[in-house]
Amino acid sequence: MRMIGLYRKRLDAFRGYVERNGFDGALVINSENIYYLTGSPFVIGSSGGKLLYVSKEGADSLIVTGLDYDEAHDKVKDVELVKIAWGEKLFERLKKVAGKRLGFEENFVSSSLKDSLRKDYELKPLKGTLEKMRAVKDAGEVAKIEESQKAADRALEKASKVFKEGMSELEIASELEYNLRREGAESYAFECLVASGYRGTYTHGMPTKKKVGGGEQVVMDFGVKVSGYCSDMTRTIFFGKPKEEMVKIYQVVLESQEAALRAAKPGMKGKELDAVARRIIEGKGYGQYFGHGLGHGVGIAVHEEPGVRPSAEEKLVPWNVVTIEPGIYIPKLGGVRIEDMILITEKGSRDLTGFSKELMVF
Q: Residue 215, Cβ neighbours under 10 Å: how many?
């Protein structure tokens, strides 16, 4: 399928929602959603100098500043590209193209912006429609996610060749980051997380100067973006002979993850898949130390729909991509997490992560 056709198909599908709900059009300001609908480039974490107006009549406009215009001009083909003048405001130009009844992304519009828009429009929430669309991937998106994951797998394989006792968390992270770029990462999906020893209980532990050794475990959580799509993985390794209790914890986490990988299939609610792994951890006496959901969707964003957690009522469907990442975190002792990404298929699931999960000692 040609890319121009792909984005037009997505725009038209979203336009159907706009029409069915009686909107004149919809305002899209989230950069990831704009990318999904148009292929417009964006920077992770940036609010972006652009907004998209999707009209029920099909006269769609991507309004951009001069800073974004040249790159958007090269990549965007299915909407009218509007470059605002120096000093002109994006939302002033919106008034020239938008109808009165305006759908808006309630999760991405600030209270002050909402109040401002209400002066000119009758606002209607989009109720996460674009996020629901993004949750079901197509074959091209899955191929990009696989490409991203393979880059992460290769990078860890190369970085691990220089891992040794006495390295600091920062040194471990720098080896990972260097090799991630060398293996094709266009950007990091998020800052590489490296936490060792007692710090392994910090589920979002940023690397420090702390040196690692004496059998301590190292939790490494990282991912990259390739062709606009994310990967996400976690591996826990040991520097020196690990403590017996930590080996036991590692085996419990691995057992729970493998059970969830085998169980994952379409029709399961996210909470049902979460329960598969959680029951094993609870049965081994570590239930109180598993304090987060089993997983989340991955795509243009590293965290998106669907959720795999105790409160997730939505059923998994074919072409969802989700993580499976159980963990056990015991204060003062340490933590273990193992994370793979999977594709939900017609009958089960397929693991997209290739790096070994055998207990590794350096």
A: 18
Q: CA 199, CA 310: separation in Å to the nearest integer?
A: 26
Of residues 43 and 190, more confidence is placed in: 190
Domain 3-134 identical in fold to domain 139-351: no
pLDDT at 90: 86
Decide: pTM greater than 0.85.
yes
pLDDT tens digit sequence for 180-202: 999 999 999 999 999 999 999 99
| Distance in angstroms (rounded) separating the CA atoms of residues 217 and 337 | 10
Give the start-to-end residue ranges of the domains of the chain: 3-134, 139-351
One of 3.30.565.10, 2.60.40.10, 3.30.1330.40, 3.90.230.10 is the CATH number of 139-351, namely 3.90.230.10
- Parallel, antiparallel or unpaired: strands 122-125 and 233-239: unpaired
Distance (Å, rounded) from C-alpha 91 to C-alpha 348?
46
Q: pLDDT category, 45, cuts 50, 70, 90?
A: very low
For the chain, what percent of residues have pLDDT higher than 70?
Answer: 97
Instruction: Give the residue from 234, 259, 273, 245 showing the smallest Cα distance to 334.
Output: 245
Q: What is the pLDDT of residue 121?
A: 94
* Residue 67, H or E segment: helix 66-75
In DSSP terms, which residues pair with 102 in a beta bridge?
25, 123
- Which residue type occupies 301? A
The CATH number given to 3-134 is: 3.40.350.10
